[in-house]
Specification:
heterodimer; A: alpha+beta; OB fold (Dihydrolipoamide Acetyltransferase, E2P); 2 domains; five-stranded mixed beta barrel; 17 strands; 25% strand; disordered N terminus; B: alpha+beta; Ribosomal Protein S5, domain 2; five-stranded mixed β-sheet; four-stranded antiparallel β-sheet; elongated
Chain lengths: 330, 299
């Protein structure tokens, strides 16, 4: 179906949504010091200030933050002619005397403990390089993966020579960020049955800034579909797998860590599940395209509202998706 | 961008093992992705159009006409495609993506008649078709379809100033010298500007893939990766095919040894033609749309 129309913005942000969305903790003393408006400043953000009470201290590039000499400048700012100006669009953060601007849209910055989906880009001696959507590829060491045969299995020399038996270029996996290296890249591990190679599903990329950091990023959704929504914006929608259900004890790890965990063969996925996977794909992508935050509740609401339309083809129309989005956000 | 074996296998199974085939984004096999567009958005250009193809591609085309040297055929259409730095930093003449897009777009433009563009023996209109790819979220995505549609829309809304040549027929008696005049007047009235001619020769490009026994229109990158062959088909407004070009022949994963037979190729091209005419019909309504305003780009 082809619609050639002028794109319309049908979903309008209300004040409540903005306040719910923001989890920034900004401590600003008074507004007079920081939010001075330049004469040439014609950015519409200043008009928002009165209405959008949720977004305080939002700045645009080139906007003067302060010209008080006592402050030091941090990330996202620059110093010119006696004042500190913002160099990115974002929210001002102040820690004692350090002023920095946290940008709204930035490449994913990994933090320790993050659950991320990645893709193997290189196979190197005793390690793999994994693309996780940040400035540098992450490193997956051979010692950080489960070797088939049990947790106590020692790494053999043959393992180093047969690394592609485990992961090869292009494979998708889910892992956890373990630690930082000195150059800023991170090391990831898959030492749990929850992690490892991804199968039986589809990949989707959404902007990382829309993914809200929460306790759990693995959702078991109705219709037999699992959704892994990782903080770097990479998503995996797949058939429900029992691995994701409960936490695993050591003894079970020994039984289950067999060759099968590195198999490239998908399970049988029937038509009903595939249609639900496609439906979930449409829902998540529709939310992302409209710039709406991706929380479990939002996705579930959208999915449930979309069930009104039994035929997936109807969901390919942007107008219908707009209607569903408006319904789901209320 | 390489896809993993499980992903390729999943996509291929979804398309081949079920009736009707299941596509990841819910479309039917002959459905194009959701498009939207705007025309007449660049006030400084003689014609312009902006097209969003799916949620991953966005292109902007501007048409500028300038008076230049005439060729034997008349005037010229010149294509130039640039890729926005937000997408890739390649933009030199030798870089692959911009130069292949430019030559593909030039191929589409070369079918247009140019004789009416000439107005004096040595002067003619040179129509510059400048395109910029604003967004291409996925590598190896099919940009040429969006470019061809945007170019078609832009050219249909282009108005070039009317040229009048004063009627100089001074013949010097006794002399065999007759020099046709090089003078011309440009009418600066907007309302008397003229549209371009011969635009029914302008084709829109539709991509189609053959995956085992299934024909898929406007394949996404993962669908194209599991196909035996993917073609770009140029479709004219009346449904005839202007040209076809192979985009890829699936080796590797999809090489089941199944070649594309003649009948298969014909049905693929027919399906593309149907989709193309639908697209051009639907895009006509955009040209008469009276909306205005500059819109923000949403990914």
């Amino acid at each position: 179906m082809v619609t050639i129309l002028k794109p319309e913005e049908t979903y309008v942000f209300t004040k409540e949504d903005e306040r719910d969305e923001l989890d920034t903790k900004v401590a600003m003393p008074g507004e007079e010091d920081e939010m001075e408006v330049d004469e040439e400043d014609e950015y519409p953000e200043m008009e928002l200030e009165g209405e959008a009470t949720g977004i305080k201290n939002m700045v645009a590039p080139g906007q003067l933050i302060t010209d008080d000499p006592q402050f030091m400048r941090g990330h996202g700012t620059y110093f010119e002619g006696g004042g500190i100006y913002a160099s990115v669009t974002g929210v001002i953060q102040r820690v004692n005397k350090l002023i920095s601007v946290r940008p709204f849209k930035t490449k994913y910055v990994p933090e320790i403990g993050d659950l991320i989906i990645g893709r193997i880009t290189e196979v190197q001696p005793k390690r793999w390089k994994v693309d996780i959507g940040s400035k540098q590829d992450a490193v997956l060491m051979l010692s950080s993966i489960n070797l088939p045969g049990g947790v106590q299995r020692r790494k053999l020399e043959t393992d180093e020579l047969q690394m592609r038996n485990y992961f090869q270029e292009g494979d998708r996996l889910v892992a956890e960020v373990q630690q930082y290296f000195s150059d800023g890249s991170v090391s990831i591990h898959t030492r749990s049955l929850k992690y490892g190679k991804l199968r039986n599903g589809v990949f989707l990329k959404v902007p990382s800034s829309l993914v809200v950091r929460s306790k759990s990023h693995i959702f078991n959704l109705p219709g037999g579909v699992d959704l892994i929504l990782s903080v770097n914006g990479y998503c995996w929608i797949s058939k429900h797998s029992k691995n994701q259900e409960s936490s695993v004890s050591i003894t079970r790890l020994e039984e289950e860590a067999s060759e099968a965990i590195y198999s490239n063969e998908n399970d049988e996925v029937d038509a009903y599940t595939r249609l639900n996977i496609s439906r979930m794909y449409i829902c998540v992508r529709a939310l992302a395209n409209r710039g709406l935050p991706l929380t479990e509740a939002a996705i579930l609401n959208f999915y449930e509202a979309s069930l009104l339309y039994g035929d997936l083809q109807q969901l390919t129309s942007p107008k219908i998706l707009d209607q569903i989005a408006v319904e789901a956000m209320h | 961008m390489q896809l993993s074996l499980p992903e390729l296998s999943y996509t291929r199974q979804s398309l081949t093992a079920f009736e009707p085939p299941i596509r990841n984004d819910g479309r039917s096999i002959d459905q194009l992705r959701a498009l939207s567009g705007q025309v007449n958005i660049l006030p400084g250009a003689h014609g312009s159009a902006r097209v969003k193809w799916g949620s991953t591609i966005e292109v902007l085309v501007g048409i500028k006409a300038e008076v230049g040297d005439a060729t034997i055929h008349g005037g010229t259409f010149q294509a130039s495609v640039e890729v926005s730095p937000a997408v890739t930093i390649q933009n030199r003449e030798t870089d692959i993506l911009p130069s292949s897009l430019t030559s593909s777009l030039q191929d589409v433009l070369d079918t247009l008649p140019v004789d009416y563009l000439k107005f004096t023996p040595s002067r003619a209109w040179v129509i510059h078709v400048d395109a910029i790819v604003l967004l291409c979220a996925v590598p190896n995505e099919n940009i040429i379809s969006a470019l061809s549609l945007a170019t078609s829309l832009a050219l249909q809304t282009t108005r070039i100033p009317k040229i009048s040549t004063p009627n100089v027929t001074e013949m010097v008696l006794g002399s065999s010298k007759f020099e046709p005049s090089e003078e011309y007047d440009v009418d600066s009235e907007w309302d008397s500007a003229l549209p371009l001619q011969g635009l029914e020769n302008l084709s829109v490009i539709i991509t189609a893939s053959s995956i085992d026994h299934v024909l898929v229109i406007d394949p996404t990158v993962d669908e194209a990766n599991v196909a035996q062959a993917t073609y770009a088909v140029g479709v004219l407004p009346d449904g005839t095919i202007s040209y076809t070009r192979t985009i890829s022949m699936g080796g590797g994963y999809a090489s089941t040894g199944r070649a594309i037979t003649g009948e298969r190729y014909i049905s693929l091209v027919k399906a593309a033609s149907v989709a193309g005419t639908k697209l051009l019909e639907a895009s006509k309504s955009l040209l008469t749309f009276e909306g205005s305003g500059f819109f923000d780009i949403l990914p």
